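Methods, example record. To illustrate the input and output format used throughout this study, we show the complete record for Cytochrome c domain-containing protein. The sequence lines were provided to the predictor; the line carrying C-alpha cells was produced by it.
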Amino acid sequence: MKNIIALVSTIVVLGLMALTFITGRAFQGGEAGKVIEDMKYIDTPKTQITKVEEKNIEEDKLRALRDKAGNTASFKVSNEYKSKCSSCHGGNGSGMQNGKKLMGPKLIGQSEEKLLKDLIDFKAGRKENLIMKGLLINTSEEQLKAFAKEIGQFQAKKDALAK
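The corresponding predicted structure is encoded as:
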C-alpha cells in the first residue's frame, strides 16, 4: 500500500511539473515575471535628488580623506607634530578627527607655558601616560620647547583662518 501511494504521489508531482513547463513559468514569474524583467532595462532619467546625493557622497569622501591625512589642511603643522602628536590629538590639536573624539585631549587654546610644563612632566614620569612617556623619552628640552611653542600657536592660526 505504501508503495502505491508513493508511486501515485510521484506521478502527480511529475504531472504538475510538466503542466507548469508547458504553460510557462510558475510562481517565479509567469507573465508578471516577464514584465518585471523588461522593467530592468528601462532607462529612467536621473533626478535632481540623485545629483545632490552624489555631490554629498563626493564631499563626504573628501572630508574623510582630509581627516585621514591628519586634518592638516586647516593650517600648517611641523612634520614632528604630525608624526608624534596628530594621531592622538588631531592634526589641529582639537582632539577630534572625523567628528569622533580621539585618544588624546584637546591641545588647541592652551598656553605655551602650560604645554611645556605638561610635556616635561610626562617625560619625567610625574604625569602617568605610557604613550606620552614613550614618545618623549628621547626628546631634548629644546624639542619640547619647540612642540610647546608650535602647539601654543594653534589657536592664533585657527583664528587667522576664520577671518
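Annotations derived from this record:
The mean pLDDT is 78.
The first strand starts at residue 96 and ends at 97.
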